Amino acid sequence: MQFTIKSLNISEKKGTLKVPVNEVEIDFTGLKTDAHSGNWHRQVSLLAKENIDEFSVQYKQNFKFGDFAENITTEGIDFRKVKILDILENENVEMMITQKGKKCHGGGCAVFNAVGHCVMPKEGIFAQVIRPGKLKTGDNMNYRPKVFKVAVITLSDRASRGEYQDLSGPAIAEMAGDFYKGIGRLCEISSYVIPDNAEELTKLISKLSKECDAIFTTGGTGMSEKDITVETVSPMLSKELPGIMEMVRMKYGQQNPNALLSRSIAGSIGKTLVFCMPGSPKAVREYMTEIFTILEHLTYMVYGFDNH
Q1: What is the pLDDT of residues 288-298, one digit of tens each?
Q2: Boundaries of every domain in the chain
Q3: What's the whole-model pTM score?
Q4: Which of 8, 46, 208, 218 is close enough to 168 for a disulfide, judged by CB 3.0 to 4.6 Å?
C-alpha cells in the first residue's frame, strides 16, 4: 500500500503546535530538529489527513497540519488498520510502528483546550527509525505489514531417518499458523527434522535466531542420555523465561504426573523467542495453548514495547 506525505511538522519545544517545513532530516532519534526526537520508541508521530478532516467537520473548526503535534501528516493510509512492528518505508527512510494512540495530555494540549477533545490519542501512531535519511513534503511511502517468521524443529533420531512420521512438528506448525491468522498477522513457517545431535541443533538454532521471530523445538526434553535439547539450548539463551513452562508442567501435571518429568524451557536469543517442548503431539498442544496466551505481548516486550 502506498501513501503520500502531505506535511512534515516540527516544534522546538514539547507541548507546542508544530510548524510545517518542506524537508526534514531523520536520524536514529527521529526528526533532528524536533523536540520529541530521542532515544525512545516514540521518535516519530504520524496522523492521517483523513482523520484531521473528520475531526474538523465534527467540531466545526479548520485545523492545520501540525496542530495535533504530529510530525508527519499522511494521505491514503488508514492507521486504524496497521499493527505494531509493521513498516513504513521508501527508498530514503524506514520506520517501524511501535505504538498506536497515546494517553491524552488534557489541559496540556492546545487542541484539547480549544474543543475539549483531540484526535491524536485515538488515531495517531508512533514509529521508531530503522533506516535514517531525508523526507520531503509530497514524497510517497509504502506500508509493509510485518511477516512473522517461525521455525519448528523436531529432534528425533528415528524421524530423521524416516523410520516414523513426525506428528509433533506439524501440530506445532498448524497451531502457530492458526494463532497468527487469528490475531490478523502474516507468518511464514519453516520446519526441520534433525537427529538428537547437539552440534547439529546448535548450528541450526544459531542460524535461525538471526532470521526468525520464534523458534519452537519438540523432543529431547526428557531424562534419557540422548535428550540433549535443554543442555544445548540453555547456554544459547540471552534471557530465560521459566514461568510459562513451570505453569504448564504444574497445570497438566495435576492430571498426568508424567508431565512433571519434562525439562521444557523458554527464553530469548536477542529478539527471537525460543520454546523447547516435549516430543509428543499431546504435550505440544498443551504447551502451545498456554504459550499463545502470552506470545503477542511477549513479542512486544523483546522489542522493548512493554505498553500493550
Answers
A1: 999 999 999 99
A2: 2-144, 147-302
A3: 0.90
A4: 218
